Amino acid sequence: MSATQLEVLTAPCEHAPQEPLDYTLPPLIVPDDPPRFAKYALLGAAFGITFVAVGMPNSFGIFQDYYENTLFPERPPAQVILIGSLASSLYMILGALTGRFADLFGYHTAILVGTVLGVTGLFAASVCTEFYQFLLSQGITFGLGTAFVYYPAVSVSRRLFHRRHGMANAFVVSGGALGGCVLPYSTRVMLQKYGLAATFRTLGYVAAGMLGCAYLTFLLLDPRKPQERANSPTEIMDFRLLRDSRFLVMLAATSVAMTGFLPRYFLITPSAVAQGVNTTYAAWLLGLMNGLSIAGRLGIGYFADRHGKLTALVASFVLCGAGHLLFWLPAVLGHSQNDERAVALMTVFVVFVGLLGSGFVSLIPVVVADIFGADNLASKVGLFNSIVGLGVLAGPSAANAIVSSSGSGDDWSMAVLFSGLLMLVGGLLLTRTYRYL
Questions:
Q1: Number of domains, the chain
Q2: Transmembrane region positions (predicted)?
Q3: In this structure, what CATH number is given to the domain that contains residue 294?
Q4: Nearest to residue 76, comparing CAs of 416, 437, 428, 403?
Q5: CA dist 306 → 159, 164, 202, 303 (Å)
Q6: Separation of alpha carbons 333 and 322, rounded Å
């Protein structure tokens, strides 16, 4: 064989089949596990983020009482509650965008953007005098800030603690419970002693300190950076999960349940006062519920790691709905102004739902990661929360409208029934997800 023939035989074929092009978005670079110190520092930073992002909106009941009785007595409660609903639900409604932002540009970048927005909203509220100004600052601007910082916080635990994801994320979200325990009392005291402007400024300094420290921790210790695509742009939104039957069933059931989730944070204090409970004790009920939910979330996280994430989520929804119907509903029935009976039933209610019915907040990211994979987790959880968040936004206003539509204006029974049934039915519907696993 001549040299020319050998070159022809060994030359690459111009028409040889090529490797198929991969048009899917590559996962983020997954580095070696960070050292133990970095793991726990990042977990602590995420805890601090939820303390601000979840704890402050969960304390809105104190602001609501101040606005309705002092600042805007002419405004109907349904309008006032919209401020707190926006602050509490924008992080969910905007999750498809802000969760994707965190995956594409890095968790530390998302935390920086959210810190600037959240702190700006609080300081802007300190100089507000009109209702629409509080709506824009305390409601929308602060809500936008929480939307950016929340998803890095609830997503980072999955790659730090694979086998104990339930417990780790329960610890992260317990920051919001601790904030909801501490901040109502602090806010009430500050409003009484120093006024609204100083209260907002103080909360702004607290938010700046905690979120600023979280940003620096993620910037220095979080090794995961987004991988850039060389040949094609990355997708801003990713809706592929909407073609998955498991995702759609879980989404529908959770949307029903979460519509009934938020009203208790807004209505437990005024409903207790309407039944003759002392105003100080009524505010204490909200703090007790948030404080006990720390133990409740850690407990349900422990249960989830050993007996199944989805099972734990279903149980949490069902138990919370049952607590509404078994304890809170009897407390507001009868209008007897029997404060001792109301105190007993409402105390049992907040203890019950705090310990047994608060785990779903931490479990949703855990279940999403368990069923649909942990790559680009912030995007997946954000997409899920964007749709569920519409119900979260509507729930408090709907419950408050039910109360306002009653003849006396203080009939809370139908609102409590509304919230409890939604959570109970949603939890039972969620069991349909098992058939697709």
A1: 1
A2: 40-60, 80-97, 104-125, 131-154, 166-186, 198-221, 247-266, 281-303, 310-331, 343-369, 381-402, 414-431
A3: 1.20.1250.20
A4: 403
A5: 18, 9, 42, 5
A6: 16
- Which of the four pLDDT bands, split at 50, 70 and 90, describes residue 406? low
Give the list of residues 6+ apart from residue 56 with CB closer than 8 angstroms, or none: 87, 142, 179, 183, 203, 207
Kindly give, in sequence order, each residue whose CB lies less than 8 Å from that of residue 425, ignoring residues fewer than 6 positions away.
256, 257, 321
Structure confidence by residue, pLDDT tens digits, 394-405: 888 888 888 877
Q: Which domain holds residue 426?
A: 34-227+238-436
Stated pTM of the model: 0.79
Of the candidates 420, 430, 391, 377, the residue with the CA atom closest to the CA atom of residue 172: 377
Of 135-149, 331-345, 346-360, 411-425, the one with minimum mean pLDDT is 331-345
Average pLDDT over residues 336-364: 85
Whether residue 12 lies inside any domain: the answer is no
Q: Identify whether 397 is part of a domain.
A: yes
Give the list of residues 6+ apart from residue 7 with CB closer than 8 angstroms, or none.
none
Q: How many CB atoms lie within 10 A of CB 304?
A: 28
Residue ranges of alpha helices (H) inside 222-278 are 245-259, 263-274
